[in-house]
Amino acid sequence: MAKAIRIHETGGPEVLRLESIEVGEPGPGQARVRHTYIAVNFIDIYFRTGRYPLPLPNGIGSDAVGVVEAVGPGVKDIRVGDRVGYLIGPQGAYAQVRVMPAEVLIPLPDGVSDRTAATLMMKGMTAQYLFRQVYPLKGGETILYHAAAGGVGLIACQWARALGVTMIGTVSTDEKAAIAKANGCTHTIVTSRENIAQRVREITDGKGVPVVYDSVGKDTLEASLDSLQPRGVLVSNGTSSGPVVIDTMTLAVKGSIWVTRPAMVHYITPRSHMLAMADELFGHVEAGRIVSEPKQSFALADAGEAHRALESRATTGATVLVP
C-alpha cells in the first residue's frame, strides 16, 4: 500500500484527502515509479475546483520525479533504477508510488538533481514550448511576460536572458520584482501600482511588443492587447484570474492581433520530440544558464496548504510536495 492524495468531489483545498492505495505491478508498456519530489502547478487547482473536469473519485497532480522500481513487458528504453520525471499522462502525481506509461517518462541526466528536476518537468518544459515553439524567440526581441516571479516565470526570465531577449515582466509586489530581476528579467512592472500597457509603451518608445505571454487571463487581457504592436501575438497560456473571452472585432481594432491558446500536449508529442525538448532544457541547466530550485516545500499530507499558498499568491518560484 502507498499513500496518495485523492479527490471525491470538487471544491476548496479541503477536498484533497490523503488515502492508502494499492499500486500493483506494471503491465505491458508500463513502469512503477517511486516519487522523490512532486510538483505543484496551478493547473492542479483547475482540476481540484472542477474548471477542468475529471471523473471522480480520482488522483490529482500532473508531474513528478522519482526512481523506477519495476518495468512491465515490452519496455525497452526505461530500466529499473533509472531516475525519471514526467509531465503528461493520467492525473495522480500526488502519490508516493504509481504506475505510469513508460512512454511518458523522461530520463534525468546525472547533472540534474531530483530536487531541481521537480521544478523543471512542467514548468521548464512550458518555458521551452512557449519560447521555442509557440512564438519562437530568436534573440533581440522585447517581450511582455505576465507573472514573471512564478514557477514558470523565473525559468522564463533566465531563458530570455540566455537568448538575448529583453523581457518585461509583470509582478504583484516590489519583493517579487527584485526576484524576477535577479533571475534575468530586464524590466518589471508592479501591477499593484503601475499601468501595464502604459509602462510597456514607455519602455518600448511607444512601439509596443511583438508578443505577450499571458498566463493570468481575464484580469490582464486588456492590458495585454494594449501592449502589442500591430499584428502582434497574444499567447494566452493560462487563466489563473478567470477565463478569457475575446470579441474578434476587438482584435481588428487593436491592430489585427493574433491570439493562440496553446496546450502542452500538442507541442510535446511524439516521444522523440518530448525528449528533444528536455535535452534543450537540461542543456541550459547543466551549463548554468538556468538555475532552478523549489522555493516552497510541503509534505504530501499538506497538499491542501500548498494549494492555499499558491492560490493566495503567497509563493514565488516553484512549489513541491515531498512524499
Automatic annotation (TrEMBL):
<keyword id="KW-0521">NADP</keyword>
<dbReference type="InterPro" id="IPR013154">
    <property type="entry name" value="ADH-like_N"/>
</dbReference>
<dbReference type="InterPro" id="IPR011032">
    <property type="entry name" value="GroES-like_sf"/>
</dbReference>
<dbReference type="Pfam" id="PF00107">
    <property type="entry name" value="ADH_zinc_N"/>
</dbReference>
<dbReference type="InterPro" id="IPR013149">
    <property type="entry name" value="ADH-like_C"/>
</dbReference>
<dbReference type="InterPro" id="IPR047618">
    <property type="entry name" value="QOR-like"/>
</dbReference>
<dbReference type="Pfam" id="PF08240">
    <property type="entry name" value="ADH_N"/>
</dbReference>
<feature type="domain" description="Enoyl reductase (ER)">
    <location>
        <begin position="11"/>
        <end position="321"/>
    </location>
</feature>
<dbReference type="InterPro" id="IPR020843">
    <property type="entry name" value="ER"/>
</dbReference>
<keyword id="KW-0560">Oxidoreductase</keyword>
<protein>
    <submittedName>
        <fullName>Quinone oxidoreductase</fullName>
    </submittedName>
</protein>
<dbReference type="InterPro" id="IPR036291">
    <property type="entry name" value="NAD(P)-bd_dom_sf"/>
</dbReference>
<dbReference type="InterPro" id="IPR002364">
    <property type="entry name" value="Quin_OxRdtase/zeta-crystal_CS"/>
</dbReference>
